[in-house]
Amino acid sequence: MDDPFTFGAIATTNALSDVYAMGGNPLTALNISCFPVDVYPPAVLADVIAGGLSVLTRAGVMLLGGHTVKDSEFKFGVSVTGTCHPDQILTNRAAVAGDVLVLTKPIGTGVYTTALKRGLVTNEDIEHIVASMLLLNDGPIHIAKLLGIPAVVHAATDITGYGLLGHLSHWVRDADIGISLTASKIPLFEGLEALVKQGCVPGGTHANANFTNAFVTGRALISESLWLSLNDPQTSGGLCIAMDPAFVDRFVEHMQVAGLDAWIIGDVTSTAPGKISLVL
Q1: What is the mean pLDDT of the chain?
Q2: pLDDT, mean of residues 130-140
Q3: H/E segment holding residue 153
Q4: Quick one: DSSP state of residue 234?
Q5: What is the mean pLDDT of residues 217-245?
Q6: Residues of the chain with CATH 3.90.650.10
Q7: Measured between alpha carbons, how far is 6 from 187 in angstroms, rounded to an integer?
Q8: pLDDT for 233 beyond 90
Q9: Which end of the chain is more exposed for a tag (fewer CB within 10 A), N or C?
Q10: Which pLDDT belongs to residue 2?
Q11: DSSP 85-140
Q12: Hey, what CATH topology would domain 89-279 get?
């Protein structure tokens, strides 16, 4: 992001997702920054911290302080501490056969932010992408708790740097379950595949694809651009949640009432354990 305030806000939203993805409530945060003092004026760092603080305030999280060091490249993140009842912790290893998979944000932030760097899109073109990255993942978890963790909602993960397929590979690796993903139902930001076809993909996409290839079947059924999209490293992506199919419609309805999106993208199977099967 070119705007320091937005940069800090997105980084902080992304960091909070790790706690939400485990069913927790974030309580406190510490800023961590590496700052090139010879490149940017101090006002830039102040704006980044202000952007992060705006998100922490919205989330009800207290900023306790932080650490800043000199570096040649600007980096900013947040270390978050939260709480969760020990009987209600969500992990990425508890999905069971028959669960339905629900995704709460579209895929494509990595491609679009790369396109911005290359001048293929403008800041105005990606306003909806930025809005998605700034959306906290507390809403889906609040609804999951209403329905019941772990009675109804069994597992969750936030979709970030490893991409959709990379994060889901953790669910099936060395496990007795598989995942069936309906490729046509996975939400992509509009125009994403066109940008991918132009070669506009971050380097992490290819690294992700090389890794997930060993876990995925059915790759030949989808286009190369969709394959790369499913491996696109996300910044502040949504949650993928596994739940009892009897409650999925109720979950989606609650999300819609809250003004949030949810897409049913697949299910957990007892067949092809250790694999993610792509179907049309």
Answers
A1: 97
A2: 98
A3: strand 153-158
A4: P
A5: 97
A6: 89-279
A7: 24
A8: yes
A9: C
A10: 86
A11: -GGG--BSS---TTPEEEE-S-B-HHHHHHHHHTTSS-TTTTHHHHHHHTS-SHHH
A12: Phosphoribosyl-aminoimidazole Synthetase; Chain A, domain 2 (3.90.650)
DSSP E strand stretches across 204-274: 216-217, 239-243, 263-269
CA distance 209 to 270: 24
Nearest residue to 28 (alpha-carbon basis) of 44, 12, 8, 7: 12
* Predicted local distance difference test score (pLDDT) of residue 249: 98
Residue 30 backbone class (left: φ over 0; alpha: ψ -120 to 50; beta: rest): beta
Q: What is the pLDDT of residues 210-219, one digit of tens each?
A: 999 999 999 9
- Distance CA(67)–CA(256), nearest Å, equals 39
How far is the C-alpha of 27 from the C-alpha of 142, rounded, in Å? 15
Sequence-ordered list of residues with C-beta below 8 angstroms from that of 6, at least 6 positions apart, any chain: 51, 130, 134
Start and end residues for every CATH 3.30.1330.10 domain found in the chain: 4-84
Q: How far is CA 202 from CA 15, 23, 77, 196, 228, in A?
A: 20, 30, 20, 10, 10
Instruction: Determine the pLDDT at residue 1.
Output: 84
Cα atoms in the 13 Å half-sphere on the side-chain side of 47 = 12
Q: Please state whether 108 falls in left (phi above 0), alpha (psi between -120 and 50) or beta.
A: left
Over residues 32-38, mean pLDDT: 96
Return the pLDDT at 112: 97
Q: What is the CATH number of domain 4-84?
A: 3.30.1330.10
Q: State the pLDDT confidence band at 90, using cuts at 50, 70 and 90.
A: very high
Cα gap 119→153, rounded to integer Å: 42
- Between CA 248 and CA 219 the distance in angstroms is 27
Q: What is the mean pLDDT of residues 256-260?
A: 98
Residue 245, phi-psi category: left (phi > 0), alpha (psi -120 to 50), beta (remainder): alpha
